[in-house]
Amino acid sequence: MPETPSPSTDRDPRYGSVVDRLSTEFSGVHHDSTVTRCVDAARHGAEDVMGRATPDLVERIARQHLQVLALAFAEQH
Q1: Cβ–Cβ < 8 Å for 16, 5
Q2: Domain range holding 63?
Q3: Comparing C-alpha atoms, which of 66, 70, 72 is closest to residue 42?
Q4: Residue 56 lies in a domain
Q5: How many domains does the chain have?
Q6: Are 13 and 6 a contacting pair, CB within 8 Å?
Q7: Which member of 10, 11, 26, 58 lies 3.0 to 4.6 Å from 30 by CB, making a disulfide possible if both were Cys?
Q8: Does residue 1 form part of some domain?
C-alpha cells in the first residue's frame, strides 16, 4: 500500500514540492516516507528555532538530514 504524505506536508504545496525534489534526489537511497518525515521534522525544527520555515531553509535542512542518514546506513552494511 503506498504511503501518503503527512498532513503538515500535504496541506502546503510549497513543502510538497520540497518532498518531490528530495524524493527524486534520494531515489534508490531513501523511501518517500523517509523523505516526507525529514521534511516535516526540518519544517517543525525551523519553526521552533526561527519562528518561521521557508521552503528553501526546510529543503536545505532536510537534505542534510537525508545525507547523514544515508551515510549512517552505508556504514552499517
Answers
A1: yes
A2: 7-76
A3: 66
A4: yes
A5: 1
A6: no
A7: 26
A8: no
Question: How distant, in Å, are the alpha carbons of 22, 31, 58 from that of 43?
Answer: 14, 19, 5
pLDDT per residue of the chain (77 residues) written in tens, 0 to 9? 344 444 455 568 889 999 999 999 999 999 999 999 999 999 999 999 999 999 999 999 999 999 999 999 888 87
Residue with cell 529543503: 59
What cell numbers appear for 19 in the block?
518532498
**In this structure, are residues 38 and 65 in contact, taking their beta carbons and an 8 Å threshold?**
yes
Buried b (16+ CB within 10 A) or exposed e, 48-62: eeeeebebebbbebb
